[in-house]
Amino acid sequence: MALVEVKVPDIGDFKDVEIIELLVKPGDTVKAEQSLVTVESDKASMEIPSSHAGVVKELKVKLGDKINEGTPLLVIEAAGAGAAPGAAAPAPAPVRAEPVEAPASQAAASTSTSPVRTESAAPASGGVVDVVIPDIGDFDEVSVIEVFIKPGDTIKAEQSLITVESDKASMEIPSSHAGVVKDLKVKVGDKVKKGSLIATVQAAAGAVNTVRAEPVEAPASKAAATPASTSTSSVRTEGGAVQTALPAHEPAVLQSNLPHASPSIRKFARELGVPLDEVKGSGPKGRITQDDVQAFVKTVLSGAQQTKAQAAKAPAGGAASGGAGFPGLLPWPQVDFTKFGPVERRDLSRIKKISGANLHRNWVMIPHVTNHDDADITDLEAFRVQLNKENEKSGVKVTMLAFLIKACVAALKKFPEFNASLDGEQLVLKQYVHIGFAADTPNGLMVPVIRDADKKGILQISKEMSELAGKARDGKLGPAEMTGGCFSISSLGGIGGTYFTPIINAPEVAILGVCKSATRPVWDGKAFQPRLMLPLSLSWDHRVIDGASAARFNTYLAQILADFRRVLL
Ligand code: CAO
Predict the structure, then answer these.
(1) 495 CA to middle of ligand 1, Å?
(2) d(CA 208, CA 211)
(3) Which secondary structure element, helix H or strand E, spans residue 177, and what is its range?
(4) Mean pLDDT, residues 391-404 taken together
(5) Is the CB of 399 inside a 6 Å radius of any atom of ligand 1?
(6) Ligand 1 pocket member 448 (CB < 6 A)
(7) Which of 68, 97, 175, 340 can pair with 228 through a Cys bridge, CB separation 3.0 to 4.6 Å?
(8) Contact status, residue 412 vs residue 489, Cβ threshold 8 Å
């Protein structure tokens, strides 16, 4: 196997163009003509193909490097005989495109083998002229991906009118005339080729601009180009691997509004339906990278953001109708907080990002109802305190949460639809009882799961809980310790509060929220008695559970907590 140095082929007028993407790395197997790097000028980007198939041994360039024809890109251990078909010479045969004399009439196009003229001349006094696609090389049909003008716009000669794109390159098409756009003849998604009418323009008096390019025979191999005219140059390869034309003039005014991304990123975004103009680029000069597109998709899917199209579909005042994918919501307010005072920005922790996305989905997708109740735990708390005194030496502290878990086990056995999950139109009733409990950790909320809580005693549950809570705080919980839960408890009892609305932990169908117990006067029929009351908040999925069942569940739970002997009944 021979080592081959792959160099930048003839890329026409492109001089000192910057590498904005490395598309391969050492160890990658590449095919002949596979794109290796993307380079970009101020008007066009292009991908440089490989002259050989093989395995990349060494990269000779890095992001930001400026390259020219002949710059070594990488070293390849060439497959088989080494060179790809037609790639014997590192530098391919050139294609010539010669500027020709400007004719006096309007644009014309021809087949690829005969000379093509793209030229227009406005009458000296002005007049309506057709502005057409100039010679864009071997491209047969390319898609219009951006349109920068609209009827009524005043345009300069050579101002970019549209962007067209093949699978490997994008290019902006300049205007041959200055004037006012009368009729726009293309829209995004149209296929165009040389000679296609872009717009009719009321030419400014005396504004004459001519562009004429004459293609010559196809090259024997890779990318090559020469200047096409004073205002257009082209880069082309056999088979259309790389081809772009760029006007050799200052960028148009509208340029600043365009999303800055290479053709492959544009293609990637289009495949995913991502509106590139809504993606914030993190690359050099704000260029949009593949990571940016992926991050945008994740944010939209998580519901943290809507695309403009989603927001536009939202009915006025429709905030009640849902979240991401629920087109009723207004877009998230974009506020420059620094206008109101100093701020500090902090990234959300990984756990917060994951739990946030889950909580949001659950809140939006599950029709929640929360029933509140109080349980008299006066006797239970006295028992717990006594138990802890007796067990002082064992090191296992029995907490109220352990009793709550055990009480929930009994209630779940009595009301099995609470120990269930929805699966389409079926309810999956579980014959095991794994209970999750929310644990507050420095990095965010985690829900470890006590497995087979129905088969375990209070002491064992207390011990396991303390171990799992410790692991959660240290970030050492394994995935198996957080999955498989049937029902969850979120206890804020150690902190405070009275009632709250816990969010159901899908695919579970209910969750119990518990707040801080307090001694309150409770009427016993004859007098007010001081009783230790525990506030309970049960959120349940109304698709599965009815309000009456929820009230019964809470009542039963409160009865057990008031007198644990009822578990035996
Ligand atoms: N009422 C009154 N006091 C209570 C109580 C209640 N319902 N529950 C616990 N306490 C007391 C305990 O008895 C303990 O007091 P002592 O130190 O005097 O014995 C103290 O509060 C601290 O208890 P704890 O919180 O350490 O223990 P726990 O078993 O109650 O809870 C755990 C463990 C992991 C659930 C808890 O530490 C925790 O993380 N809670 C927060 C859960 C949460 O964030 N939920 C919200 C989810 S939605 O964002």
Answers:
(1) 6
(2) 10
(3) none
(4) 91
(5) yes
(6) no
(7) 97
(8) no
- Per the CB < 8 A criterion, the answer to whether 187 and 228 are in contact is no
Read off the pTM: 0.52
Distance in angstroms (rounded) separating the CA atoms of residues 166 and 29: 24
List the residue whose alpha carbon is closest to atom 17 of ligand 1: 494
Amino acid letter for position 516 = K
- CA nearest ligand 1 atom 35, residue: 439
Over residues 350-363, the pLDDT tens digits come to 889 889 999 999 99
- Partners of 437 in beta bridges: 489
Q: What integer pLDDT is reported at residue 238 of this predicted model?
A: 29
Residue nearest to atom 5 of ligand 1 (CA): 493
Question: Could you give the angle at which helices 290-302 and 263-272 cross, rounded to 10 degrees?
Answer: 20
Ligand 1 pocket, residue 439 CB under 6 Å: yes
Q: Which of 54-68, 90-104, 155-169, 472-486 has the lowest mean pLDDT?
A: 90-104
Please state whether 33 falls in left (phi above 0), alpha (psi between -120 and 50) or beta.
left
> Residue 513 above 70 pLDDT?
yes
Ligand 1: nearest atom to the Cα of 503: 48
Instruction: Please answer whether residues 411 and 404 qualify as being in contact, where contact means their C-beta atoms are separated by less than 8 angstroms.
Output: no
Q: Pick from 435, 488, 491 the residue to mutate for probing ligand 1's pocket: most ligand atoms within 8 Å of its CB.
A: 491
| Strand intervals (E) in 271-348 | none
Q: Which residues are within 8 A (CB) of 383 and not within 5 positions of it... i.e. 6 or more apart?
A: 564
377 ligand 1 Cβ < 6 A: no
pLDDT band at 346 (very low <50, low <70, confident <90, very high): very high
Residue 59 CA to residue 55 CA, distance in Å, equals 11
* CB of residue 440 inside a 6 A radius of ligand 1: yes
DSSP structure string for 537-567: EEEEETTT--HHHHHHHHHHHHHHHH-GGGG
- Among this protein's residues, is 542 annotated catalytic? yes
Q: How many residues does this entry show for the chain?
A: 569
Is the Cβ atom of 494 under 6 angstroms away from ligand 1? Answer: yes
